[in-house]
UniProtKB/TrEMBL annotation:
Family from the record: Belongs to the RutC family.
Signal peptide: none
Name used for this protein in its record: RidA family protein
InterPro entries reported in the protein's UniProt record: RidA, RutC-like_sf, YjgF/YER057c/UK114
Family annotation (NCBIfam families): Rid family detoxifying hydrolase (TIGR00004)
Pfam family, one: Ribonuc_L-PSP
PANTHER family assigned to the protein according to its UniProt record, in alphabetical order: 2-IMINOBUTANOATE/2-IMINOPROPANOATE DEAMINASE RIDA, 2-IMINOBUTANOATE_2-IMINOPROPANOATE DEAMINASE
Superkingdom of origin: Bacteria
Amino acid sequence: MSHKQVLNTGEAPAAIGPYNQAIQAGNTLYVSGQIPLIPETMELIDSGVADETHQVLKNVQAILTHAGYTFSDVVKASIFIADMNDFATINEVYAQYFIENQPARECVAVKTLPKNVNVEISVIAWKA
């Protein structure tokens, strides 16, 4: 594939701005930041940062699956959190999804996230 391909799936939340869920360029998939929206209702999970992180990663997984990738294909993850005090909880949930071949990543605390959520995660995946 020598051009970029736009990828969207109903199994993950629809974009809430002028972007797509993912772009595939060659063998690389760029997944937009996901927040804890329930795809079917577009309602936010607000029952705590662990539940939010699970929903975020389920959304990431839905996009990866739609594009033919898995968590083991992820080479880079970017985690944005509202409070660094939630780092350990988010890390615990994250480790349940990235079991082997964990990607490079960063985790940064930011002042505010879309819809005032506590966590947002984007990933880049690659496979030969």
